[in-house]
Amino acid sequence: MLLLGIVASAEAQKSCVIADAETHVPIKEALIHTDKGQWARSDYRGYWTMKYAFDSAEVKRPGYLPTHVRFETLPDTLFLIPEAKQLKEVEVWGENQKSAQQMNEMVRKDAAQHGGSGPSGHDFLGFLDKRGNRDRRHLEEAQKRQKEQEKKERESKTWSDALKEAYEETNKKK
User: Is-contact 150 158, C-beta < 8 A?
Assistant: First the structure.
């Protein structure tokens, strides 16, 4: 009778190592919660032992997906899958923005060459797009002002060059 009790308690005791599924590194302080209400925690080697009988257990650790395991199928090593963290959007800023500006210009030129978004290259319902029309007018106005500004800069450079030359000539004669 005593021998039967020892065999039953030895059969109820189960141990396992918990490790990362990607790196195979043992995971410390993983929590194991059984369906019977017992708790266990893995040590620094990822090793844990449950002394009481249970049917199923849940293994959790922050940064990993929770895993459910049955007593009958509990392996020697249980691998936890790391949680995936995805960024919705990444915006990269660099010191040299020339390539981004060139790409933007190429896209604008391509859109201007091919016209609207319709099958024949025309935007049939574009007259209903108030925001698009407003943006188009703003873009045209901005381009017009930019050309005027560039023209003024060219003229001022030539004017300043003429002044500089006149100054240098007067200083050379003296």
Answer: no
Distance of alpha carbon 80 from alpha carbon 68, whole angstroms = 10
The residues, ordered by sequence, that sit 6+ positions from 54 with a Cβ below 8 Å of its Cβ are 14, 34, 35, 36, 38, 71
The confidence score (pLDDT) of residue 64 equals 93
Question: In 3D, which of 17, 14, 27, 16 has the Cα closest to residue 81?
Answer: 27
- How many CB atoms are located within 10 Å of the residue 80 CB? 21
Q: What is the pLDDT of residues 61-71, one digit of tens each?
A: 999 999 999 98
CB contact at 8 A, 19 and 26: yes
Amino acid letter, 107: V
Task: Find the helix or strand (DSSP H, E) in which 116 lies.
Answer: none
**AA identity, residue 4:** L
Q: And the tokens for 80? A: 């936890």
According to the model, what pLDDT value does residue 25 have? 94
Q: What is the pTM of this model?
A: 0.43
pLDDT at 105 over 60: yes
Q: By C-alpha distance, which of 64, 106, 108, 103 is closest to 83?
A: 64
| Tokens matching residue 147 | 């050309």
